[in-house]
Structure formats: C-alpha cells, structure tokens
Amino acid sequence: MARKVGVYTRISRDDEGESLGVARQQQDCERLADLRSWQVVKTYEDNDVSAFKRNVVRDEFELMLRDLRAGLIDGIVAYDLDRLARQPRDLERLIEIFDERPRLEFATVTNDINLGSPDGRTMARIMVAFANKSSHDASRRIKRKHLELAQQGKDSGGPAPYGWSKDDRTKVDPKAAEAIREAQREILAGVRIGTIRTRWQQQGLGNPRAGTKRMAHHHVEQILTNPRLVGYRTYHGEILVGEDGEPVKGNWEQINTLEEWEAVCAAIAERKQKHPGRSLARKYLLSGIARCGLCKAKIRGQINNRWQPGSKAARYTYQCSVVNGGCGKVGRVGEPVDRLIEPPRVR
Asked: Measured between alpha carbons, how far apart are the two ends of the chain, in Å?
C-alpha cells in the first residue's frame, strides 16, 4: 500500500496575491512523491507567510504537525528544508514527532535529508541554522535601509496613511485632510473621540480595517495626532531627531501647522490625565498580548459593568473584538485565565 504523505508549501512574500510560487512548489513536490510511489493526500499551504518572524503563526504548518502526530499522514514532502523551518525551534518540533513515529517519510525536492537518521538530523540542524542566519542578515540590512530612508526624510513605502493620496503618498488627499482638521477642531471644542469615530464610520472616513464593523478608538486617535501631519518623520513609532537635535522633516505635504498639531496632542493627553492619581498600568494581564485561536487578532480585556461585589458573574472577560479587527467569536472569563498565567504568590 502506498504511503500517504502531505505536501508542505510556503513563500514569505506574495505581493501579487496570485499564489504562483506555492503552486510551483506543489507541482515539484507531487512529482517527487510520485517517483517514490507515495500518495499525496493533503497539501498544507502557507502563502505569503514568514517562517523567520517569531510572532507569526503558520496555521497550515501547525495543522501539518498535528496531522503527523495523530497519524493522519505518514510523512511530508517539501520543496526545500527552509520552506519548512527557518527557526531551529520549529525544526526541533518536527524532529520530536519523527522520534515518536520512526517510520515517517520525509523528502525535499532540492536535497536528500533523512530526518529519521542521526546524520540527517544533524545536517538538517546545520542547514536551518544557516537559513536562520541568512534571514537575520537580510533583516539587519532592511532595518538599516529603513533607518537611512527615515534620516533622509523619505517614506519607506506601504499603504498611504489616512490624509494622503493613495496614488502619491507625498500629496494630501483634500477630502481626508478636511475630515482630519474638522475632527481636530471638535477635539479642541470638547467632543469625544468616540463621537468622532461613530460619525467617521457612518461616513466611510478614516480607512477602517477591512472586516471591522466600527473603528477602534486608538485608530482615530492615532490619525488625529500623527506626527506626519506636521511633516515629522517617525521611526519605530518615535519622532526621529537629526544630528542637529531637530525633528527630521519628511518630503510630503503637511496637513497641520505645528501649533495646531501640538494643541490637539495636548488636549488628548490632558483627557488621559483627568485622574492624575490613577495608575495608567495595564488593567488586564493579557490584554493586547493573547491572540484569538481562530483569527489570530489580539485579545482585549473588557469589564463587566453589571458586576457587583459578591456576584458570581465574571468581573471581566477577554474578548476577540471586531472593533480591533477580530472575528468576535472567542471570549473567556478573565480571572481563571489570569490564574493560569500568574505565578502563585508566596505567603
């Protein structure tokens, strides 16, 4: 009986979204499986997904590991070892499964590595270590390039921030710019950001995240206080300062004068400090850290306003919120989850 194997394909970037790279990998893997008289029963495809970034979850890779461990497939065929792993820890997870199931098959199109043998595992570890170093080197060069662009006041690419033309990031979008200025005038007049957010949602302003039913509070706040509004270049979320000690100016049109922008920033900061004695520390242990198991969006803590002292109801919950781009389908009672994470207190 032919061995049932899965094909794993992955490519880090697919700017066109046409999945041509993973399709070519799949064809070559299927040809190799056929040469070895293996039956391909499932393809695991992680298109446009990095294997190097630690905070990225590869859904199909995780499913493949579960299927291997459960015995649903008898092995894996990949185009190259670095398609499977660029982090040593991912390779070790795969090797652990081959330890548990010694008769598993493994093959790649570009080389002959046997994860079932000590020599093969040693070679695989060396290859993944070199792939990891290559990714580190590329990441370092890219970061240095972005810093150079920032120091020169140039954009680093990507979608145009709200307020600027989608076709030319250096040119102001008149309609969006006027919406920003109007909202800023409202802030100075005492209008709440939540009110502005609701109106923008109704009018289709602010470029809300795809799939969200309403924009997040912090999204609107960031638009109205963006240093880019006065031409300041930021790097890693901070205003970049040049060798002369002055903020680096970008090569795009401004929407605000410095006085206008500073007034809005000060007004919003003052609202956050209405209770100077109150701690501004994180209210919920896992808020913004935990991820939804379905859509991978960040989980947020939400207070139960109906909770009363002595009540058996949940005091707060962790929710995958559609406001923050989530699916809204996952929620957990907060306190039991926190107890699983926090170390026991020493009495």
From this structure: 62
